[in-house]
Specification:
It contains 22 helices and 2 strands. The protein is an all-alpha fold and about 525 residues long.
């Protein structure tokens, strides 16, 4: 009954005309962002953060807008995967395996509709599971003390660069760099400056919004410049779109199974939508066997990864809202938004700000239906977006980044810092170093340090206190396994090759989901 009354509170917030309009706008922008090869949900949400604050939106409205963009981008990522063989983001990569062959066989419209329905099923399942599981998990989190929180943050660092990263050492290096940047500024305990080099602008530390926009959006512009915007100005034609009822009926169990697996993958910190789409595709391929025809353009090969990655996107919100630990790169960006709004995600969020949490959940439920209605009949509109020339796209992204950050901070130093982070992100992309752990380090570094200090004060400097409870021991064990396991899993699980033809000569996306 508590859930129903809380959900009623959420819908009273979400069904206001203003919030509803923001959800629709967010879905529309998100789908466009997801469809454009090279952007993706992390970049889309990062770009909109400055605009959100410039508009003076309150916490609920800002979260509704940004999470709608997140969900919309997850929907939109499939469009370029199917039509161009270019994943709009990394989770959509598995959709190319059967989506592009379907498009080559003249069934592009069918593939887009099936993927849209599968995305709806996955996202809806995840949102319902979120509203059922999150409150229970939040109550468990009341058992956490400084030692448990320190171990939890360690788990996030160990796993966020884990499965998605190709090199554990590089993920650890990126985390250390992020933690180092978080140490810049005044020490909360002593009030002494640390690592500022005498620069007054750094006394308050590095603003994580500056780092996020630089590492995600500005670095993407540099990559586009380097590649001369390949893949952004490819003309796409789509014939008449119809609803393939027979294929949708044949894939219903695939969608449901993939939604469950994808949601579980999303809840695990660091697994994210990429793992969700990969696991669900391989699961359905194994179930179907050689006669299933996976890789040749079958409906189940499109439905499975789309349901999986959209369910994982919803699952990634669970650890962020209940524990304050992001489950993916995009939820790390959303966590930054919450902290900027002076909202502390965690167990107390459900008790202290129920209108924010339940308004967000209700908005996600509404956004799912908006996205379904938007993505099936309006798919031709979004396909046209794929022909946007880079000469228009690049200046637009850069302008939004500069104007947004300057409107927030009013500091030219932060603009220079943002460009510096952009160069850093570009270099990291060249060196194949993940940028999400850097963001995570900047976001959680101070909280991790504070909890470590509290634990040491409570235990009078006894290090064993960090392992003094079953929860802490479990989290330490999970952190070690989360860091080490991908070393072995990558040898066992290998991603299948993308289909030949189309724009396969383009680099694969490296953005986090």
């Amino acid at each position: 009954m508590d859930i129903l009354s809380n959900l009623a509170l959420g819908f009273s917030v979400a069904l206001s005309p203003w919030t509803l309009m923001l959800a629709v706008i967010g879905c529309f922008i998100g789908t466009i962002v997801g469809a454009l090869p090279g952007l993706g949900p992390s970049n889309g949400v990062a770009l909109l953060i400055p605009i959100t604050f410039s508009m003076g939106l309150d916490a609920t409205a800002a979260l509704v807008l940004l999470t709608s963009v997140y969900y919309g981008a997850m929907y939109g990522g499939r469009i370029s995967s199917i039509l161009l063989n270019i994943p709009g983001d990394e989770p959509a990569m598995m959709t190319t395996l059967d989506g592009y062959p379907m498009a080559k066989a003249g069934r592009a419209g069918d593939a887009l509709v099936i993927s849209g329905v599968a995305s709806f099923v996955g996202a809806l399942f995840a949102t319902v599971a979120l509203l059922l599981i999150a409150p229970a998990l939040a109550r468990v989190a009341y058992l956490f003390g400084p030692a448990e929180y320190f171990a939890l943050y360690l788990l996030a660092f160990s796993t966020l660069g884990g499965v998605a990263s190709k090199n554990q050492a590089k993920a650890a290096l990126a985390s250390a760099i992020g933690l180092g940047i978080a140490m810049i500024g005044l020490d909360n305990s002593t009030g002494m400056e640390r690592f500022t080099g005498g620069e007054l602008h750094l006394a308050d530390g590095v603003d994580f919004l500056v780092a996020i926009v630089g590492l995600f959006a500005v670095s993407e512009v540099f990559v586009f410049i380097e590649s001369h915007g390949r893949g952004s100005a490819i003309g796409v034609k789509l014939e008449k779109v119809r609803i393939p009822w027979a294929d949708i009926a044949a894939t219903k169990w695939t969608m449901l199974r993939s939604s469950v697996v994808g949601f579980v993958a999303g809840v695990l910190p660091g697994a994210g939508a990429s793992l969700g789409s990969f696991l669900t595709y391989m699961m359905e391929k194994s179930i179907a066997g050689p006669r299933g025809g996976f890789g040749t353009g079958v409906a189940k090969g499109v439905a499975a990864p789309e349901a999986g990655n959209n369910a994982a996107a919803g699952g990634a919100l669970v650890p962020m809202l209940t524990l304050g630990v992001p489950g993916s790169g995009t939820t790390a960006v959303l966590l930054a938004v919450l902290m900027t709004l002076n909202i502390t995600p965690g167990p107390t969020l459900f008790a202290d700000r129920p209108e924010v949490v339940w308004g967000l959940i209700a908005s996600l439920l509404i956004a799912n239906f908006v996205l379904l209605l938007m993505n099936v009949p309006m798919v031709k509109v979004f396909v046209r977006v794929l022909s946007v020339p880079p000469a228009l796209l690049l200046p637009g992204v850069m302008m939004v980044s500069f104007v947004g950050i300057y409107s927030l901070t009013g500091s030219y130093f932060d603009l220079v810092l943002m460009i510096g982070f952009g160069v850093m992100g570009w270099l990291f992309r060249k060196l194949d170093i993940p940028t999400v752990p850097v963001i995570l380090g900047i976001l959680l570094g101070n909280a991790m340090e504070d909890n470590l200090r509290r634990a040491m004060v409570l235990s009078d400097g006894e290090v064993g206190f960090l392992f003094s409870s079953p929860i802490a021991i479990g989290l330490w064990t999970a952190a070690v396994l989360g860091f080490v396991a991908p070393l072995f899993l990558r040898r066992i699980i290998r991603k299948p090759a993308r289909p030949e033809g189309g724009a396969e000569d383009l680099p694969e996306p490296t953005r986090a989901d």
